[in-house]
Hints:
By secondary structure, the chain is of the alpha/beta class. The protein has 8 helices and 12 strands.
Amino acid sequence: xxxxxxxxxxxxxDGLRNGLEAEGxxxxxxxxxxxxxxxxxxNAYDAIVLDxxxxxxxxxxxxxxxxxEGNWTPILMLTAKEGEWDEVEGLDTGADDYLTKPFSYVVxxxxxxxxxxxxxxxxxxxxxxxxxxxDPAAKEVSRGGVRVELTARELxxxxxxxxxxxxxxxxxxxxxxxxxxxxxxxxxxxEVYVRHLRNxxxxxxxxxxxxxxxxxxxRLASDGG
Length: 225
């Protein structure tokens, strides 16, 4: 899943990026509200972690602008301020949840996962395609009840394909959501990881869930192959 972090404390933002990337998220960072609003308008994010006290535009204004434009990407608002009125203002401008600094990283991760499950696309707790099953929170994958071990990047790719199951997704879309906009390596890395998934989830079970759509990208069969 692709997440935008809008946070002006650079070290804190880097810490969030590193932690979320270790969990398999693709993460973009904006260090001020103006850049954050521009990125949120220009890119398709699955969630936004938004600080309130920002240079340029504060988090309230960024959130209100997005909601006024019909952008309903789930927003988790962060602030060092305390007080129920700050929370009320954040929620009233359209934020989905609110977290006061300092906070536990595991709590932030749990709340972010909760937002991803209840956004307008109705994300379920577990993702399935036939007998292929992924629990994103527990990072557990099984095929026909047999547990399969995947790396963090393999998990991220499988999660993206499962969330778009039955749809053809381009290599560019995969790079944007499973890696991030700063990735400068060989785009063929997508083919490498697709091959890894096929070797772990398809071939040992006599399946062919991940299809190559020539000239377009890849598609994970809705029935799990």
